[in-house]
Amino acid sequence: MKYHLSVIIAFAVFSAGGGELQRANLKFEELQNISISDSIICIPSKIVQVSDGAVKIEAENFAAADLQLADKRIESMPDASGNFAVSYAKMLRYELDIASPKKYQVYFRAKFPLVAFWNHTEVMNDGTAERIVDSDCRPANIWIWYPGLVYELQKGKNVWTFATPGGWCGGAVLDLMVLIPEKMNIKPEDVNEKLSKLELPATGQAVSRRIKLQRIASWKLDFVPVPHGGRIVVEYSYDGESFFPVEAGKIYDTANVREEYLYFKINMETAKDAHISPFIYNLRFSIQRK
After folding, report:
1. For 2-16, how does the pLDDT look when each residue is reduced to its tens digit (9 = 90+)?
2. How many other CB atoms are found less than 10 A from the CB of residue 260?
3. Pairing of strands 231-237, 261-269
4. Rg for the chain (alpha carbons), in Å?
5. Given 58, 97, 150, 226, which is the most exposed site by the fewest CB atoms within 10 A?
C-alpha cells in the first residue's frame, strides 16, 4: 500500500548560527509498507485468521511501535515463543484480519522484573481504553499466562493498540497474545499456530519531504539498522533523482553542493521466510546552520 503521510521524527533545535550540529525536523511523506515512529522504523506486520478458531500473535509482529528509551531494542530471547519479546514499549499497535467475527477471550504470556502490581492500557478499534491488571505481585522473571478482556471482533480489519501512558513499560516483557473464541475449550498454550498466519510485506519504502539547503552548512543522519537477515538501505539525494547511501553518523558538508534541496529515502527488505521485520532504531537528523 502506498500513501502520503507526514511523519515527523525529530523536532527542530536550531542554534543562532554556526557551531555544533543540532537536531532538526525530518518529515517523511511517501510511505509504502513502512511504519515510522520516533524510536523505531519497521515494515508493518498483519495477523490473518485462516479458520474460525483462535488467533496467535507474537509480540514482535506489530504494525507499529514506539519504545520508551533510546537504548532499548526488540530483544532476542531464546525462551520466548518466537525467539523475540517486547519490553519498554510506550506504544504497540497490531493489525488483525478476522475471518470469523465473534467474541474472543484474550490471553497474554508475559513476565515481570519485580514482584509488584503491573498493568497496561489497551484499546480495540474505536472502543474505550481499558486498564488491564497484568500481575498482582506474582513471582518475578517467570513466564506466566493470564486472561485479559473479552472482545467482540468484527470481520476484516481490527486494530489493537497498547498506548501511553500504560503501554508495556518499566521492564515488563510481552511475549505472546492469544485470542480464543469465547466458547472454545482450549488452553492458550495449546493453540495451534496454523490457525492464523503472519503477513509481512517483502519490501517497504519511505521518501522524505525535500529539505531546503539555503542555510545548511552541513548535516548528519544517525541511525541503528538491524536487518534481521533482510536488507536496509538509507540514501540521500540533492536532486531527488540520484540517491547515494548514507553513512550513519558521518557529517556531510554542503559547501560545494549546487542543488537547492536535500532528500532522504529508506528502503527495507525482509528476509526470505522472515518472521520479523527489519528495524531501524533512533533515526536522527542534525544540521549546522550557515
Report:
1. 444 445 554 444 443
2. 12
3. antiparallel
4. 21
5. 150
Nearest by Cα to 221 from 164, 183, 266:
266
Nearest-angstrom CA–CA distance, 89 and 12: 24
State the Cα–Cα distance between residues 260 and 266, nearest whole angstrom.
21
Distance CA 214, CA 46 (A): 42
Question: Distance between CA atoms of 241 and 195, rounded to whole angstroms?
Answer: 45
Question: Among 231, 230, 232, which residue's Cα sits nearest to residue 271?
Answer: 230
pLDDT in tens, 149-196: 999 999 999 999 998 767 788 899 999 999 999 989 999 999 988 889
* Model confidence band, residue 25 (pLDDT cutoffs 50, 70, 90): confident
pTM of the model: 0.92
Residue 19, number of CB atoms within 10 A of its CB: 9
The average pLDDT across 52-70 equals 95
Residue 69: burial class (beta carbons within 10 Å; 0-12, 13-18, 19+): exposed
Give the residue among 8, 9, 162 at the shortest CA–CA distance from 90.
Answer: 162
Asked if omega into 165 is within 30° of 0 (cis), the reply is yes
- Contacting residues for 191 by C-beta, under 8 A, at least 6 apart: 53, 54, 56, 178, 180
| Cβ–Cβ under 8 Å, residues 97 and 154 | no
